[in-house]
Structures are given as C-alpha cells and as structure tokens.
Predict the structure of Precorrin-3B C(17)-methyltransferase.
Amino acid sequence: MTGRISIIGLGPGNILQLTPQATQVLAQVTDLVGYGPYVQRVEAPASVIRHSSDNREELARARHALEMAQAGRHVGVVSGGDAGVFGMASAVFEAVQSGPPEWRRLDIEVIPGVSAVLAAAARLGAPLGGDFCVISLSDNLKPWPLVLRRLQLAAQAEFVIALYNPRSKARPWQLAEALKYVQQYAPLKAPVAFARAIGRPDEAVRLSTLAEANAEWADMSTLVLIGCAASHLIERPNAQPWFYTSRKVEAV
Amino acid sequence: MTGRISIIGLGPGNILQLTPQATQVLAQVTDLVGYGPYVQRVEAPASVIRHSSDNREELARARHALEMAQAGRHVGVVSGGDAGVFGMASAVFEAVQSGPPEWRRLDIEVIPGVSAVLAAAARLGAPLGGDFCVISLSDNLKPWPLVLRRLQLAAQAEFVIALYNPRSKARPWQLAEALKYVQQYAPLKAPVAFARAIGRPDEAVRLSTLAEANAEWADMSTLVLIGCAASHLIERPNAQPWFYTSRKVEAV
C-alpha cells in the first residue's frame, strides 16, 4: 500500500474561500496534521485522526506526516491561507530532502489556497496592483540583518511590501524597527494598512501612512501592507478609503 | 436603485479552484465584464449580459463597468487568477479615482482568488517557501529600465522572483534580456521553472537552472519562477524533481 500526502491551503478562514478542490481532498484523508487551530478548523468525519502540534514545530510535524504516509496513510497537512506561503509546504519538502530516499517515492501533492495576502488585498481595494514582495518579519529562521536588507532593497525597488508575522509576544520589537527602517527608503506619505484576521469574524482594518504607522496596531494575526509611490488612498463619503496601487509607473 | 461592482478572481482555470464565494457572487450579477476568454469561462444564466473586450483595454473596460453600476446594474468584473494581481482590481480603482465623485459612493467589492503564481508554486512543490516577489515583465505600463532595476534589487535581496507576462508576440525579447540580466546577480545554479497554463488541460512544466533557462520556452500563458540561493531541486525516481525553497537562511 502506498501512502500519500496532500498539503492543503485552508484559505483565510471563511469557509466560502476554501476551494472545492481542497474540500474534496479533505474528504479523502485518513489523518490531519498541522498547527492546532488549523487542524481544528477542518470539518472531517469522526474516523479521521487529528494530529495537532504547536507552532514552530514544522519540521517535526512534516517528518511525522511523511512517516505516516510511508506506512500507507493518506495524510492531509493543513495550513491557513496557502500552504506554499510561509506554510507547511516548504517544511515537508525540506524533510523529504534530508530524509530517507524512500520518501522521494511518495505521492506528495500541494493544493493551493487563497493566501492571507490576497485576502487582505481584496478587503482593502487593490494594494498589490503593481509589482510587490512578500516578506516574513520573523527572525526565527533567518538573521534579522537579512530581513532589514530585504526591506531596504524592496523599498528601493518601489515594491509594495506585504509583511507576514509582523509581531508576536515572543517578537515584540521587530515591526517598529522595520517600519522605522523602511521610512528611510520609501515615501513617508505611502499608505500603510494593518489588516487583521481578514475573512474571520473578528477582522479589522486600520489605514495610515508610513510616517504615522504604529507597530502597536499589529498582532500575530495581522498582515501589514506598505505601499509605494504608486499607491493611493481614495477617500469616500462615510466609508473607509480604498487602498490601491496604480498599474502604471511613469518614466522619470 | 444602487448598483454594485464585484471584482472576481476566477482562479487558474480549473473549476475546482474557483472559490464558493466567487461562485455565489457570479450567480447574482446582471452583467459580466472582462477580457474575452475570462468572460466566456464563466457559467452564468442566459439573462446575464456578457461584455467581452480585448486585452489591454482595462481602463475603458473599468469605466464601462462603473457606468453600468451607476445605472443600477450588478456588474461582475472578472479576471483570471486573483483580480488584485495584475488583474482588473487596480484598473477599476484607478478609474474611480479619476472619475466622477458619484463613483466613490458605489458598492465595490473584491473577491479574492487563487492566483496563477500560487497555482504554479503548488504544482512545482514549494518554490515560494521563503520571501519572494512578483513582477510583471510587461513594459506596456512602466519603463523597461525600471523592470531591470527591480530584477536587480530582487536578486540582490535573494527573493524568489515570479515573473508574470514574461513574453508575448508583441514583446518577444524582454524575457531573454531579463534572464541574462538576473544572471549577474543571482546564483547561476538556482532552479528556474517555466509553468505554463497550470490548472488547465494544456498545462506544462519545464525545469532548468538560471544558467541554462531559455526564454523560448515561455509564451503568454507561462509563469516563470526564478529561485534563489535557498532554492533546491529534489531529484526523484521516474518523476519530475520537486522545486522548493528552504524557509531557513543561515547567517553568513
């Protein structure tokens, strides 16, 4: 019997943003593996075994999934948003690369999902209308000076910058330093959005500018979007402004 | 009567990757607006009026949608993938900003979708496992020197680089120049993927390295993914290698 791994993006959290492909595959798995809140989110028959683990246990969790697949199970490895964007997909392939050769024979598929950055952008207007980049502000897996260097180069490239993992209890200071750093390289009047838990009942949006953005407005469920020179806020009567980035950049 | 605009991402093309939210909204619209192939792709009741237009007509198309919404229609503006990523969302808000004040009172919503880059990444493994950027190689709306500058800075930032619109009949030379340019700043052995029409019946994948990638392998339906120093190909028996990027970057 040959096992299988399906790495599944669950989308932002609203069931209407979970793809039918993900729903179909979730109905076939024998086991679910992932960070607790994501595993709990899945509706599955009672026969499905749920293996929840803590955050930051990605590699151990991936190896566990691969061992179960090798034993013939069909393991669903779940992430919020899209599993390929700071989710479990990379951890699974990292485990394969460093694991026994048999794991390379396993049937591993990745089912894409609506990522947090796409959901946040849709909620705000069209902030990703031009070229953009996506950076995790966590320095658990890369040195902080590299994060700063990437922020500088991204701002110099006039990318819109989407920041994942901007702030947590264990990493309270990075976002304030990052914002201050980007202020040196991007326009101070560029719009900045704090998009929290988009697609979930407790969603919240706060708009500001790079000059005035306050890191205290973010928590671990927030995505921060920093605009560029081509980004605009469109004021509206009795409603939050729309945040969009022009597709067009004039020659200077 | 107040009109409404729903800007909808149709996903990569496979109906199983269209979100239930998009399906629900598509069932409510009175009119569909978009580039011909996307408008034709939508299953809709006969009463829905389809307004197809050519590529590169985004702004005129957006204004037409806004005029119809102002006249009380519920207009679905459709894009492939996610409408916020080189799709129609930015054009609609650009039209709002430069249009009559009444347009700011319209109910405009954006329904996110699975973008082409997420679908391509899922098909390949986990190439977006670290920080990444997304660049349109088209110089219809921005100067070519800016595209090259962004490529340079992105490579120096060690981002994985996803290229939309790499090549068309009207723009046959940009990709070859871009690849040659990036070779100066990114590792020559970095994996490069040409992912064509992912999620559609004619999908095709070609893997190479930055040193050997050939622009002739791309057409207007191709997404090109250029890896970084943290990207790897995992060889497999009797199957295409997996392309993934490590989440971890060591301090140098």
User: Anything to note?
Assistant: The helical segments of chain A are 20-26, 36-41, 58-70, 88-98, 116-124, 144-156, 174-182. Chain A touches chain B through 76 residues (CB under 8 Å). Chain A has two domains: 4-114, 117-245.
